[in-house]
């Protein structure tokens, strides 16, 4: 997976403009689940912008709160380890909330 480039040309240019060149050249090597990495970042930077899309910004704190709320709802509906949850949303801040919520529930998303 680390050899797959998930960014399109415009996203590469934006990261380059932001000065985050390390993301473009260094593959991440982590062994922690995404949910743990997110929780650590949310603890460090609650008020920092986590998602910016179509003029809307969401802080790590907001993303954490919204995804926790949705994760609890999904668990109540039966989501959890060994389960799959379909996420059919256009690319948006809400899709990030949904994907993170599914992962927090212990399920996998597709």
From TrEMBL:
Q: Per its UniProt entry, which superkingdom is the organism in?
A: Bacteria
Question: What organism is listed for this UniProt entry?
Answer: Mycolicibacterium fortuitum subsp. fortuitum DSM 46621 = ATCC 6841 = JCM 6387
Record keyword Phosphoprotein present? yes
Q: Where is the signal peptide?
A: none
Question: What InterPro entries does this protein's entry cite?
Answer: AMP-dep_synth/lig_dom, ANL_N_sf
Protein name as catalogued: Linear gramicidin synthetase subunit D
One Pfam family in the UniProt entry: AMP-binding
Please list the residue ranges annotated as the AMP-dependent synthetase/ligase domain. 38-109
Sorted UniProt keywords: Phosphopantetheine, Phosphoprotein
């Amino acid at each position: 997976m680390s050899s797959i480039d998930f960014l399109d040309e415009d996203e590469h240019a934006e990261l380059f403009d932001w000065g985050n060149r390390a993301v473009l050249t260094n593959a991440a090597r982590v062994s922690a689940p995404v949910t743990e990495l997110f929780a650590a970042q949310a603890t460090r930077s609650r008020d920092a912008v986590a998602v910016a899309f179509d003029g809307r910004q969401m802080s790590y704190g907001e993303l954490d709160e919204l995804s926790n709320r949705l994760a609890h709802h999904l668990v109540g509906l039966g989501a959890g380890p060994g389960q799959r949850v379909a996420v059919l949303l256009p690319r948006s801040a809400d899709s990030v909330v949904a994907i993170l919520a599914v992962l927090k529930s212990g399920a996998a998303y597709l």
